[in-house]
Amino acid sequence: MKHVIVIGDGMADYPLEEINGKTPLQVAEKPNMDWIASRGESGLLRTVPKGMQASSDVAIMSILGYNPTKFHTGRGPIEAAGMGIELEEDEMAFRCNLISQKEGVMRDYSAGHITTEEAEKLIETMDKKYRDLGNFYVGTEYRHLFVTKHLNDEINNIQTRPPHDMINERLKDNIIEPKDHKYVQALNEMILKSTNILSNHPVNLRRKKETKRPANGVWIWGQGKKTTLEPKFDEYGISGAVISEVPLVKGLGVLAGLNKFETYQDTKFSNLNYEEKAKLGLAKIKDYDFLIIHDELPDEKSHAGDIEKKIDAIEKVDYLVGKIIQGLRGKKFTISILPDHPTPIEVKNHTAEPVPFSIYSTEGRRDKVEEFDEYSARRGSMGKLKGNEFINKFLSL
Ligand SMILES: [Zn+2]
Prior knowledge:
Blueprint: E1 2-8, H1 24-27, H2 31-39, E2 41-46, H3 56-63, H4 68-71, H5 75-82, E3 92-102, E4 105-108, H6 116-129, E5 135-140, E6 143-148, H7 182-199, H8 202-209, E7 217-225, E8 240-244, H9 247-255, E9 259-262, H10 274-287, E10 290-295, H11 297-303, H12 307-328, E11 333-338, E12 355-361, E13 383-386, H13 390-396
Parallel strand pairs: 1-10, 1-11, 2-13, 8-9, 8-10
Antiparallel strand pairs: 2-12, 3-4, 3-6, 3-7, 5-6, 11-12
Bound molecules: zinc ion.
């Protein structure tokens, strides 16, 4: 039996006036997602436990079957696992964004989707300059890592803000707390001074010429200590793999005992090659019993507030789903489609409402749901599940 979960990041949404009171999922052409819904069973899944942040690390941890209230220490250590960085017990890992700021105000959490090659040079400059505070590690595009040993005693007190939550706000009003702690002070200084260090870097001078947004700052957040997850898929006696372009999802897979495969090293998201991704997915299905394919594009377009492009992103994920189903034909298989969390266009950020999911299995049952979307799923026979109940249902089919 082959098991495949396709996660379309942030696909779920609210009804929008611009598309006649429907959601992007409801108007997208998505015959393959609907195929799963109409031949299988659907339901709603609460992936974000009460009181926790609606983020992909929390939500996908739930989907994989781990209760985030118990296992989630922060985004940093999960990404570290995805980047192949082994953390020590006394270390704290922060996610580090390259950002664009103007006059001390956050403009762009992704520094205009800077390329990995450009980012590498900027992150290396920061690393050299701040060795005594910690180490910077190069990830992909604007997503990097900062690891320090200096904050172990403050591990539960540290408060940071994700850069995508503070667009158009002053950096100074959002720095790390508690401000009076010696090393927190040093980190805040590093963040605020990074602008001076990076602004005139050759990489940024070139970007300026090309009228691209400068990567003129770093912002660290999502801190946590080393995370350990019991590799759960051994229990079921299955080998698995995760395919994603983002370190976070790869990291969760690695922590859960899956093998990771990346699609594109550099994903200028609009150019993501779905043909390649489908090919990689199909190749891995041959080698593994369990596969998670994650796609970030719908979330990116939701943050940008672009309805048309979000619909297009959903259709691209549907293309992936279609290719996978084609590749599984003739085999016994179970496939599920779901978002990790909603990223409503109106909010331009993640929310914590339950997400729709559909599961089709060659060995399973079907319910009355015909389409895959936020409202159809409410009528599904699977009802409303708590995050970590999903994987057991899915794997038992
Ligand atoms: Zn997002």
